[in-house]
Amino acid sequence: QSALTQPASVSGSPGQSITISCTGTSSDVGGYNYVSWYQQHPGKAPKLMIYDVTKRPSGVSNRFSGSKSGNTASLTISGLQAEDEADYYCSSYTSSSTWVFGGGTKLTVL
Amino acid sequence: EVQLVESGGGLVQPGGSLRLSCAASGFTFSSYAMYWVRQAPGKGLEWVSGISGGGGSTYYADSVKGRFTISRDNSRNTLDLQMNSLRAEDTAVYYCAKGFGITVAYNIDYWGQGTLVTVSS
Predict the structure, then answer these.
(1) CB pair distance less than 8 Å for A48 and B110
(2) pLDDT score at B89
(3) Does A96 touch chain B (CB under 8 A)?
């Protein structure tokens, strides 16, 4: 149950696009289309942004999108806004019927 | 509106026990898998345990297997986590979370606000 691999930090200017990667194995990310992305602001509970690799819950901006290729999933945020500054975590279902999270990525909006 | 309210956190000595509870409302509790996820101070999220909607299937992270027990009472809409043989590394905010569907193969869609567990002498 090793954590999924995410970059520790990414940054971008308002209006730009950024992509956060999430790398696992064929036993998790690569084996299932059950990848989620969560946004967490300091001191707050996580919020679901993307589920089932590409789906957006109602109420989440269409600036957020997800994709997957092989063992790596990605979250793209377009038209960066100051309010997007937060920590982002990916999560995947695993062959052990458990879930595993990534280490988290701190997004800084410059 | 989905609401998940955790309780039971606090300070406990190493080797001690603690029982966390989560009161759920705003949805048909028995139709959804439920989870516990924790976050150590300044660290990332760690999946701890999951239970199916009917309660018949339970799953644990290797780090807590044999020490923690997840359970649910669908008549009272409550989720529990019994934590035994606690260690310093179990210190974290523990979140109760709801799944999209009845089995644990579904993503988490709602989270509670968390309850802090501190293991220290």
Answers:
(1) yes
(2) 97
(3) yes
